[in-house]
Amino acid sequence: MSERQHDREADTVPGECLQDRLYVEDQKSETKVFWKLVVGLLLVIAAVAATAVAGGDNASTVVPASTSVEQSDDGKSHPNPRRWLE
Amino acid sequence: MTDWVAYAAVGVIVAATVPLIVAAYQILLVLGHKRIYLRHLSGYLNGSYTFPNVTILVPAWNEADVLAASVTRLCELKYPSHQLRVCVVDDASTDATGEVMADLRAVHGDRVIHLRREHGGQGKAHTLNAGLDLILNDQWSQAVLITDADVLFTDNAVTKMARHFADPSIGAVTAYIKEGSQPGTWMTKSVRYEYASAQAAARRGYNVIGTHACLAGGAQLHTCDNLRQLGGHIDTTTLAEDTVTTFNTQLAGRRVIFEPNALVYAEEPNSIRALWGQRLRWARGNLQVTAKYFPTLMNPFKSRLGNPAFTITWFSVLAQPFLMIAASLALLYLALVPGGQAPSLLRYLWLTAFVVYLLVLVVVFAVDTTTFKQTWKQGVAYPGVVNLALMLAAIRPSVFAGLQDVTGDPDAPATAVALFAYTWLAVAMVVAWLAKQVEGPGRFRHALSRFLLVIAGYGPLLCAVGIAAAAKQLRRADNTWTKTEKTGRVQLGAQQ
């Protein structure tokens, strides 16, 4: 039996050898996924931070406590959601 | 009255970001997958484990074009040949399925079973049940792999799935289904990209929280004990039989697991109309499942399905299309009242969307780099060109501030451009629906429908399907089952 045939035979039987090999394969695969995601997330965080700094972002923080009620021309009270965003 | 409406409008816009935040949360969960997955594998897998006898159950209705390739492939999988057999349930096919099966039996002998139903057309679940009646009543099978006729499994996929049964708490395992049409088109590549995010990424997240929404219909491996505990048959009362099976498995106390390294390739719709039909069925099924399991989903003490992380995810997916419409209306209202601050809220919404959009691109690259390389264009265009422009515009505060200040008066009524920006969330779904409506024979209609789809976006198309599904459910439409046509385009390891 050639080495190739032997490998093929071993692969058709999900025994200890194959299981160990599959485990190592999957371990490598999941480790790659993890690190790629970590690096990608860091890049996204860096991009968001850089944008916030460069763009002078002042309009994405919701602070309900500062909501005010203003009088309009009709004499009625209206909420001013503008303040929520300042 | 006005006060309440204004506050409610702001609340709706904030609520519209919840599905986006949940999507980001699911992506972050993927970070925890490696530890949980490897701990599970190393804890249960060892050489002493005896793999189960597996019967692969293939429902088939007029699948002659694809059956020979898929059954042959199944018989050649790297799994002990004496422990693997294939049962094709022919749902009263009128094509050459009978001849194809006769040829396959001549080659593979008793490893291939051909079960023919004389009266078919009742749907996939009924077809599967005919096969389960046979399989669960013999003592040979220890596990059943439910698949579709067009699905091609990679060499070790079944082994990688079956090894999880070494852990006796596992009742069912699903694989990573990749769209595998060759040659790939814009549509099939869009589906391929979607599957990388919705399966390879989101299902890793479900592994982490320990609760799954749905086993992939084309690759779900159950222990026979699990299926017997579920009554020995697949649910036929809804259009989402896979989801019901998944829910019932977990309600019965067994766990469901996603095996991300078991790869299978399937053919998915190549036209907007076919995709619409398929997703309409899925979306209606999910609404039916929601109605059926609502108390269970809302009770965190009763079962895994009440896990708050899972419940929030489940409902945010269902609610997203409606929240998009509600957010558009809320923005429109705030644009028309003095000091409504619609531009700032629009910017808040789109900045959130943009961050999630980047996260999805990153996670698809991380979990399936091959697919990312093949489909990055579809990934970039996924939200639609207009939405992409709005997201990019949101980066600069001055652009959105100018929407209301364009007349020089901050309290002036919104301009036409502003109204377009505020309502596009909802209008995009209409344009996506139009893309489906105009699709038809001829180059012009094909080009127009693809143009509209790129403008509106694949994501809004799926949201439009969600709205259509709700409308059908409200009309109490029949549970008609439209089969997705398969043409045999799928190939293993699609590289285009």
Show unreliable segments of chain B. none
Distance between the termini of chain A: 77 Å
Oligomeric state, counting identical vs distinct chains: heterodimer
Query: How many beta strands in the DSSP annotation of chain A?
Result: 2
The proportion of residues in beta strands of chain A is 5-15%
Largest interface: A-B, 47 and 57 residues
List the defining traits of the structure above.
A: 86 residues; mainly alpha; two-stranded antiparallel ribbon; 2 helices; rod-shaped; disordered N terminus; disordered C terminus; B: alpha/beta; 11% strand
At a glance:
The complex is a heterodimer of chains A (86) and B (496). Chain A is mainly alpha-helical and 86 residues long. Helix content of chain A is 58%, strand content 9%.
Provide structural commentary.
The complex is a heterodimer of chains A (86) and B (496). Chain A is mainly alpha-helical and 86 residues long. Chain A contains 2 helices and 2 strands; from the N terminus they run H-H-E-E. Chain A is 58% helix and 9% strand. The N and C termini of chain A lie far apart (77 Å). Mean pLDDT of chain A is 64; it is low at 1-11 and 57-86. Chain B is of the alpha/beta class. Chain B has an 8-stranded mixed sheet, with helices on both faces. In chain B, strand 2, helix 5 and strand 3 (112-117) form a beta-alpha-beta unit. The radius of gyration of chain B is 24 Å and the shape is globular.
